[in-house]
Amino acid sequence: MATAPGSVRRHGSGCWRISLGVRPCRGSIAGLKQVVIATGWLTVADAALHSTPVDGRHTWYWAGAAVAGYWAVVLWLFRDTARGIEDIWARSDTFAHGYLILPIAAWLVYRQRAALRVLVPAPSAVGLLLMVPVALLWLAAFLVDVNVVSQLALVALLVTGTWAILGTQVVRWIAFPLGFLFLAVPVGEGLIPPLQEFTAFATVRMVELSGVPVYREGMFFSLPSGNWRVVEACSGVRYLIASFTLGVLYAYLNYTHWGKRALFAVVSLLLPIVANALRAYLIVMLGHVSNGELAAGVDHLIYGWVFFGVVMLLLFWVGSFWMDPPAPAPIPRVGVASGGATPAGLLLTGLLAVAIAWSPWWLVAGRFPVGGAAQGVAAVEGAAGAAIDWPWEPRSDGADRIVRSVHAGADRQLYFEIQQFPPVPGVEAAVHFRELNPASSQREVRDLRSRQVQAGNRTLTVQEAQITDQGQRMRIWYWYRIGDFSTGSATLVKVLELWQRLLPNGQGTERLVLVAPDDEAGSAVAVMQRFIAAQEGG
């Protein structure tokens, strides 16, 4: 007697046959799994019960070994990049939370164990293919010494390699923990100057609205009760990074809708910027009303962290009103990864992933000393004209040759320095002014910006800084030159350096620094402009 499609019929053996074009073997677990794949009718509990055979657990053991081995090899191959991350964790309180990121990510994966238990790892070609551009990104960043990009690429290699070994269906359930690993990379120092500017602007504006007279010049401002300065530690980047990390984690744990998660993450990113300006204002006003007896020194830092703690507690408290109710752990339907891999397949995928990750390292290891940098300055030449008598001169870390000269203008001397850098990784010519400026607690940096100047029949972009050191005001211009091309754009220099370092006989980079005494009227600009026209106009 024929069985109609969709009907259920009991056989004498006690086994049920479900006619959907699938005829399971009598009494077999394999047949039951076929039914589950075809229908998806079984409950979550039944699926977990009938789809976790010993073979699945056995496959997980091999997959875990393959992932662990891959991570160990990659971290060893890129140990200089990994050590660079850990060095920043160790020396900077701003990024010390990086030590906690990996344990937290591991715990987040452990929370998904119920879902992972019914999946079988199946290697993914997509993960392997994505490793190729990531490996090339690391190579490019290494060649031009963009450390933050090479560090992000290292984490991306770990993530995509894990994807390649475990497969898309497994990685889908641990996507957030893997993405959370990127927060271990020390990112955010480039935000310090704009955050300083916003904090200074907002603080001065709020002080003015409070009826207190205030005079601002750059990062410095004066009240009748004393002088204040917005230093890098006051920029709020430390609070911003901590807030965003906590906010992203809180959103993932307490919301199930991605819209809520994204909104809370954005709020946790913007709130500390506003809160830091308010913190700075309160500290300034506290110092003002107490004639400097409060909110100074250690008190300054303590009040700041206490204020930040209160802000975060308020953020979490407000966020709790929209918290999604706890739901049972979602279990994937059986069969989505039923085509699990053999141990040999998992290990082969791990080896392929290692080979892809190793390829850029192999390309540069023979040609460049990985992790190596120039050891000091090989030669210093100078100085044409009279000796110069002012306290500032630029840092020249990594330069192998320096040419210094002093030029007498109509009413002032100009100091000119050419720093030459070899076309090898480990030295960085294009830097922010804080890497060019020697450390000094007495030096005041008044202004940082880009300026367009005329160099013959073309326009040249230079980076400009105005500083006051030991009572003397100076204006500083610096820019870069590779071959016959000059620019003040650090990004463009990096692109040109990458091209030169890929060539067999690539050219090095020159950093040119011009310094002149200045005054409040900016009288040095015209003199420096004439020098640039003569120097670069040809």
From TrEMBL:
Record has Methyltransferase as a keyword: no
GO cellular component: plasma membrane
Major localization listed first in the record, in broad terms: membrane
Stretches assigned to the Methanolan biosynthesis EpsI domain: 431-534
Subcellular location: Cell membrane
Domain of life of the source: Bacteria
GO molecular function: peptidase activity
InterPro entries: EpsH-like (IPR013426), Exo/Archaeosortase_dom (IPR026392), Exosortase (IPR019127), Exosortase-1 (IPR017540), Methanolan_biosynth_EpsI (IPR014263)
BP-aspect Gene Ontology terms: proteolysis
Membrane topology, record value: Multi-pass membrane protein
Pfam families, A to Z: DUF3485, Exosortase_EpsH
The name this protein goes by in its record: Exosortase A
Annotated organism of origin: Parahaliea aestuarii
Gene from which the chain derives: xrtA
